[in-house]
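Lab notebook, bench 4. We co-purified these components, and the gel suggests they stay together. Before we commit to crystallization screens, I want a quick structural picture of the whole thing.
Request: model the full complex, all chains together.
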Amino acid sequence: MSEEIVSELMRAHVYRLASTGQRLDGRALDEPRKVSLERAFVKTAEGSARVKLGNTDVLVGIKMSVGEPYPDTPNTGVLSTSVELIPMASPTFEAGPPRPEAIELARVVDRGIRESKMVSMEKLCITPKEKVWILFIDIHVLDYDGNLFDACSYAAVAALASTVAPAKSLGLGDDFPLPVEHWPVSVTTAKIKDRLLVDPSLDEERMADARLTVTTDENGDIRAMQKGLSGTFSYDEVKGIIETAQRVGRRIRPLLQSS
Amino acid sequence: MEDIEHFAKAMKLIDADGRRLDGRKFNELRPIRIEAGVLRRADGSAYMEWGGNKVLAAVYGPREAHPRHLQDPARALVQCRYNMAPFSVTDRKRPGPDRRSVEISKVISEAFSSVVFAEQFPRTSVDIFIEVLQADAGTRCAGLTAASVALADAGVPMRDLVASCASGKIDGVVCLDLNKDEDNFGDADCPTAVVPRTGEIVLLQMDGHLTSDEFEKAMDLSIDAARRIYDLQRDALRRRYSVTLEDILKESPPVPSPMQPEGRLPSEDDFGPEGI
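Here is the predicted assembly.
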């Protein structure tokens, strides 16, 4: 991903606004962009969701198949998450094997879902040591306007929640919805100098010094975190970011849960 | 899987009344919907639904071509990347290009190279990205048709839009626009793309078995359908860009000009011998 240049004027402007609690698009500092969600967008997938977070547009498709479990977890299904930053989505994305950015993104989304035990993977075991369900979360970024971590995570969660396992066509009994037990919500905060901005837009993200993604569950417990970029956070800042993530998470969760 | 067994046994793709499995006649297209300008970051974009196909196309450029050694000092490169999402098909497709996608990307690039005024933009590339989100046979035609609208949305100068459609043969009958089941169990498939204004053919592929009479029948069907698709493409662009007089007046109410007597529309005389 080649860097895009942000002008000094824009940098100064965004910071000046932020220091008076304002942002380019009129949001408050702790206010995420509008989330819109379209479920079952792709009929060829076992589950899917298209999420727009502001102008960031992400499509997630879930495919399921049957395979062998890992030897160290013989009684649990397999979860595999991948992200394609397709060159359609941004002038800075290039075709080719996944770059570190895409790998980090996929792993952070995966971690939130895996660690929150959103889907009970034990219930996706068919025959211990031999046959389990394999869940593929394929994330397709269509339009990149900042904060892919949250957009991808919302789309993945919504897609999983709408997934029906194709058991019948594989001779494994009746089709069944995935056993969803928890609801992780990821909230990313960017730091520009000494200001913290929730759900950074592209311009904000490009000039951010540091980034922190916090995934919380329905009890407000933290299930995954990831700090990014070369800047630093103070301990107080981290505590504040977690509180905000819990608060924003409570507002976004019902949206992902509604069907 | 059940479906496949059913078809393999019955192999009846056209009923006694000449209707196809989805109720279409031999010369009928599946429902088509095109929308122009759907992505924010791309210079031009279009979304298309065609039967069960869902396809996005985006255009970037003309922009500096890189790697640099690919640059052509005389003209722009027209490069297309056709890609299928892993979840766009029944059995998950491994992400990334396979031999089929590489071939389709190449023939689509070549199809557009013949309509884009590439000599106006030396050393640049016009990059066309086609993403198949949901596949139901005929994805290259849908991709090409959508990409054509995306190129226009990006303002890339072209001789004309390109419209594309496939015809094939099922149960011995030449039919327009095969769907997935028809494609899987049919006898031939022949995707075509044309420049509707001139009738030039810019893409032509075929696999299966057709007599020369059948081939001509298939081409006639495809060319006729391409004209209808061309209208849908232009409609999509019109919906995106057309402005009515009311829109203009709402934006900026007319200011009486001191130079012109009120109520008189400008005539040719107002603009000297050069015209406007």
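Chain B has a mean pLDDT of 89. Worth comparing against the SEC data before the next meeting. Chain B touches chain A at residues 1-2, 39-42, 45, 52, 54, 56-58, 60, 63, 81, 83, 85-92, 95-97, 127, 129, 131, 133-135 (CB under 8 Å).
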